[in-house]
Design brief:
Helix content is 40%, strand content 22%. It is α/β, with parallel strands linked by helices. The chain has two domains: 2-119, Rossmann fold (3-Layer(aba) Sandwich), CATH 3.40.50.2300; 126-220, Winged helix-like DNA-binding domain superfamily/Winged helix DNA-binding domain (Arc Repressor Mutant, subunit A), CATH 1.10.10.
Length: 225
C-alpha cells in the first residue's frame, strides 16, 4: 500500500515515515502543500496523512483542491487544531478522519488500516479469495490449512491484488503501488516477485489463483482464464 505523508515538522515526518516502512507500507514524504499537490497529481495513493498548518498551501487548501478534482483518496488529518470548528471545516471539505497531536502511533496505524479497508469496501481485517486468506492486521497469510511466509513486498503485492480481485493489473500499476519515488530497482522486479508468489501461493494447489494476461499484466482470481 502506498502512503503520502505531508508534514512540515521534519522530525515527526521522519518518525512517521520510519514507522510506516516497518509496517510494510511504501511511503513518499513532503513538507508543504504545494509539494503535496505535485505528488498527488503524479500518482495514486491508498491514503494521505496530512498536517493542516503548513507552508505555501495548508491542508484545507490541498484537500479542497483534491475533492474539486474528483480525487477521493482517503485523507487523515494530523493536527494540533482540536476545536470542533476546525474539525467541522475539515470534514465538510471531505476529510476522512482526524488525529490530534500528540498521538500514539498504534492508534495512527489502526486508523490507517480502517481507512484503507473502507476504501476497498472491506468491513474487517481479512481478505479472502477462494481458500486464500490474508489478514491485514496480523500480516499473516494462509491457503487452506497451510500458513504461508511472505516477505513485506510479497505481502504488499498480494494484498493489492486481493483488493483488486478479478481486475487485471499492469506491471506499472503494481510497481506504482508497491514502491515509492526513491525506488531504482530492476525493471523486471514485479515479474520476479510474481514468480515468488506463485511458488508460495499456487505451487502446491490444484487451483491456480495468479494468472498472467499477456501484454497487459497479472490478475488474481479463482477461475482459469
Amino acid at each position: 500500500m502506498r502512503v503520502l505523508v505531508v508534514e512540515d515538522e521534519k522530525d515527526l515526518n521522519r518518525i512517521i515515515y520510519k514507522k510506516l516502512k516497518v509496517e510494510g507500507y511504501s511511503v513518499d514524504c513532503c513538507y508543504n502543500g504545494e509539494e503535496a499537490l505535485d505528488y498527488i497529481n503524479s500518482t495514486n495513493y491508498d491514503i494521505i496523512i496530512m498536517d493542516i498548518m503548513m507552508p505555501k498551501k495548508n491542508g484545507y487548501e490541498v484537500l479542497k483542491n483534491m475533492r474539486e478534482n474528483k480525487n477521493n483518496t482517503p485523507v487523515l488529518f494530523l493536527t494540533a487544531k482540536d476545536t470542533i470548528e476546525d474539525r467541522v471545516i475539515g470534514l465538510d471539505l471531505g476529510a476522512d478522519d482526524y488525529l490530534i497531536k500528540p498521538f500514539h502511533f498504534d492508534e495512527l496505524m489502526a486508523r490507517i488500516r480502517v481507512l484503507i479497508r473502507r476504501k476497498h469496501g472491506n468491513i474487517n481485517n481479512e481478505l479472502k479469495v477462494a481458500d486464500l486468506v490474508l489478514n491485514v492486521n496480523t500480516h499473516t497469510v494462509k491457503r487452506g490449512n497451510k500458513e504461508i511466509d511472505l516477505s513485506s513486498k510479497e505481502f504488499s503485492i498480494l494484498e493489492y491484488m486481493m483488493q483488486n480481485v478479478g481486475i487485471v493489473l499492469s506491471r506499472e500499476k503494481l510497481e506504482e503501488h508497491i514502491w515509492n519515488y526513491d525506488y531504482q530497482g530492476a525493471s523486471n522486479m514485479i515479474d520476479v516477485y510474481i514468480r515468488y508468489l506463485r511458488v508460495k501461493i499456487d505451487k502446491d494447489f490444484e487451483t491456480k489463483l495468479i494468472h498472467t494476461v499477456r501484454g497487459v499484466g497479472y490478475v488474481l482470481k479463482d477461475k482459469e482464464l
